[in-house]
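Practice record 12: protein with erythose-4-phosphate.
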Amino acid sequence: MQIFLDTANLQEIKEAVALGLIDGVTTNPSLIAREGRRFLEVLAEICALVDGPISAEVVATTAVGMLEESKPLTAVSPNVVIKVPMTAEGLKAVRLFSEQGVKTNVTLIFSALQAMLAAKAGAAYVSPFIGRLDDISQVGMELVEDILDIWDHYDFSTEVLVASVRNPVHVLDAARLGAHVVTLPHAVLLQLLKHPLTELGIEKFLKDWNRVPV
Ligand code: E4P
């Protein structure tokens, strides 16, 4: 399973890259706004740090507007993937982008049928938002399961990118289901590394090692 980092924060990206675990980055307008910096500058810096797909979201509401808005974004790096909202205009744009060889990530997916339509339109990625479904008492991971069930029957090249991840259990479930990609907040990535028994084990080994005669 590929691991993307869901952030626009350069320090978090640097730390994750140093771990050698990051295959790509996803951003969204809220994450970019949190940084308080110009979008294109942040995007260029992310692309310089990570050699993998970097999702940059458009905010236009028409297909034509999305295509126009994407131009300076794709000019930053060939690794930029245009993140498009799951709307009728978004799907029109996805088709046009795919004809131009531009990769897209269809975002804000909350049903398996939305994912199927995005795949048919030619999306490179579909992003089911798991945490936001959990937030409204719907089991988000069931959506990933439904999408992957559909994928089993057809020859979609679209990758299922599990998004809106809130905790390590989401990551475990996504991996057990065979999702292609998971995008993680930095804090969740760090949680994955840790186990209290690992820490206790290291502490005990170090204590015992100090008793070994030199
Ligand atoms: C994914 O691409 C989105 O940026 C992200 O996962 C949304 O997560 P949230 O629901 O925690 O805002």
